[in-house]
Amino acid sequence: MTTVVDGGIGVVQDAAGGEGRRWAAEPTFWREVFDQLGAGLAVVDSSGLIVAVNPAAEELLDRTAAAMVGEDFHTLLHRRADGTTAPRERCPLLAALARGAPAHGEGDGFLRGDGRLVPVSWSGAPLRGDGRAVGMTVLFTRAGVGRETSEDRAAHATALEDLTGRMALVAEVTALLAQTLDTDEALDRLGRFLVPRTADWAAVDLRVEGEVRRVAVIGPKGRDTEREAWQGTLPAAVERSRSPLVRVLHGGEPVLLGPGEIAAPPDSPLAAVQAGFLRSLGAASVVIVPLGTARRVTGALTLVRTGATPPFDAADLALAGDIGRRAGMVIDNARLFGRQREIAEAMQRNLLASLPRPGPLRLTARYQPAPVGSQVGGDWYDAFLLRDGATALVIGDVVGHDLTAAAGMAQLHGMLRVLAWDRTGPPSAVVDRLDDAIPAITDVPMATLVLARVEGAENGPWQLRWTSAGHPPPLLVTPDGHAEHLEQGQGLLLGTRLGDGGRPDATTPLPPGATLLLYTDGLVEVPGTDLGAGMERLRRHAAALARHPLDEFCDQVLARMSSDSTDDIALLALRIPH
Fold this sequence. Notes:
Layout: E1 2-4, E2 10-12, H1 29-36, E3 40-45, E4 50-53, H2 55-61, H3 65-68, H4 73-76, E5 78-79, H5 92-99, E6 103-111, E7 117-129, E8 132-142, H6 147-177, H7 183-194, E9 201-208, E10 211-218, H8 224-229, E11 232-234, H9 244-249, E12 255-257, H10 259-262, H11 269-281, E13 283-292, E14 297-306, H12 314-351, E15 362-368, E16 379-385, E17 391-398, H13 403-422, H14 427-441, E18 447-456, E19 462-469, E20 475-477, E21 483-485, E22 490-491, E23 506-510, E24 515-519, H15 531-544, H16 550-561, E25 569-575
């Protein structure tokens, strides 16, 4: 499928390997470059299909963009000097495309739309994305003789290299910013990418709750103290100021400053701070561009070059403006993600019950949301007193990680409390009744849980009675540092409908000073690793923490185990009195 947009920039499907690749130009910078380039320019994808041509190429080849985009470059255009088509395996352009290397040719011809052959000189430069060649830009002019034509050809080759480099830079920035939804991390990555590649210094200012904050200053290594000194809240960006930074923050166009503009007297407190900042760096050339668009400005990006670096030019300004637009969108998305995540976490925590204080027993719990994802999940814990004086402990996990899972978790949570309170009996009987009731109370497809009863007199001894519906086994840690997973009492997951009741129960004594840990699989399950290895890591860490206070025990277990987790984690810990 082929589409042609303004300026002759095409969008096609890459036929190589059957995978679709979308090619498109930015509506401002790249279209302007394509339109104004005096030589013919074509962009081909990794399989040699034409995905973009500029007006000069249309004129030279007497073909419209619509007639060329989507066609095979070699088959449609490339001919020997005698007009015959060279075999594909002997085409230097296709060979360079396959290697991801630059190439050039003299004495070849391109076939015009009117059937005539036009002699050309051409140069090709690879386009890269994600560290690999994804296509090539091909610059070509009518072949001629003489000094003037040679100079033009050299100028065109330089323009091609420059264009390819800028396109690759923007592609790298886009990929870099897309790797995270954390604002601070995105800005740090952006700054460290731009310095020293495009500037000697970079500063990022954000509009945050009515204030302007300089959240990042990136410069040469060894000048950390200087960078930190310029970060923090800035004076208000009063609209009457003519400061370039203030104008950009209020939706103005990108600005290019030379020595005269940099040395201009400030007319507002914010302008004075910016002037002092630039003076301290020895700025000789400055670009200030908005982060975002004129309708929605998130902040401003300031790029600085000192006297030892060539000054910025109009092309640098256009490139920085494009980067600023992309960075602004990433920041807006990150902020939206953060707000959604805060709401989701608050909702999740409100669904989790507060813990009782059952006599001398001590309980504590932790909930840690997944590091990636903006929705609530199905992990939960609970503890409550039963009518016969025992303490019920629950840890569970509903399949899924979305609002449906959270709603199902809340439904199972409430029903389990009702069933456990309604009749005194072993945990297995309660879970069997819950499994029978699931079709009537929720659309949850499957869930796992452990339901346990802690039984004993005020002064002990204490006993644990539990059943597991396909959930990771509880971990019992004694004060002397012995830790073991309680593998007994395992039954089918909730919702499988494969059993006929009769889930197993298991019992074990709880020694004085022992710690019982219930947890969800996010604590021990890391993608690409063995679950058994995760459970063994947990056992070793818990054994080493056996004598720590209960809150510290949970915090340390979570810190040591969760660094590589991609899932929610819920913990419920019980400490038996000595």
